[in-house]
Amino acid sequence: MSPLPEGVRHFPLYLSPQQQAALVEKIRQAVQAAPLFVPAMPRTGKEMSVRMTNCGELGWVTDKERGYRYQPTHPATGAPWPPIPEILLSIWRDVSGHEKPPQACLVNFYDENARMSLHQDRDEQDFSAPVVSVSLGDDCRFRIGATERNGPTVSLRLASGDVLVLGGQSRLAYHGVDRIYPQTSPLLKNGGRINLTLRRVTA
Ligand code: MD3
Ligand code: FE
């Protein structure tokens, strides 16, 4: 068992099954107001396998023409993002150690074939705040490495209701999702995994 990298904290089953179900309902409402979109890589336009939306004052979006960025409105509807559900704000207050509330909540939806390749999160101006991640639905194999692309990595199985805090040295660590383990959670009727990431964006 490799230790987790410096700055990573894992809270297995932070949310009870009842809290998870209530949060899924909040996310379903948010997705009705702010439909999932297909993110595309800058320049190439290659589509990612996850589907995304956001809550909060700013949302992370990407497309071929304008690349990675945060913006206050949905790329298709032009509407402001829905508010971040209160339960997520209370998780942030409990685990982030950060004074200010999160500005963005990225909602990633994975079907059983979706992946996220190794990358760094560096589109934010404030790296002093951690990223807080909440997993719902099927388990995944999450991989995290060093701040250099070719550094050593460790894998972690994330389950529904788990919370992960990525602060300190790990804030700029390479990370990704290698695979989803289908049918490992009864939470989502049609299976798959939802990951919610809470962040500070502006300086
Ligand atoms: C480590 N999401 O949205 S969550 C992402 O499961 C992202 O959907 C993955 O990577 C997912 O950018 C991983 C855990 C996570 C989130 C942000 C991090 C790990 C991180 C930022 C820095 C280091
Ligand atoms: Fe990331």
Automatic annotation (TrEMBL):
Keywords: Dioxygenase, Iron, Metal-binding, Oxidoreductase. Its EC number is 1.14.11.33. Its cofactor is Fe(2+). Residues 101-202 form the Fe2OG dioxygenase domain. It is an enzyme of class 1 (oxidoreductase). The keyword Metal-binding applies. It comes from the Bacteria. GO terms for molecular function: broad specificity oxidative DNA demethylase activity. InterPro entries: Alkb, AlkB-like, AlkB-like_sf, Oxoglu/Fe-dep_dioxygenase_dom. SUPFAM superfamilies: Clavaminate synthase-like. PROSITE patterns: FE2OG_OXY. Signal peptide: none annotated. PANTHER family: ALKYLATED DNA REPAIR PROTEIN ALKB-RELATED, NUCLEIC ACID DIOXYGENASE ALKBH1. This is Alkylated DNA repair protein (DNA oxidative demethylase). The lineage of its organism: Bacteria, Pseudomonadati, Pseudomonadota, Alphaproteobacteria, Hyphomicrobiales.
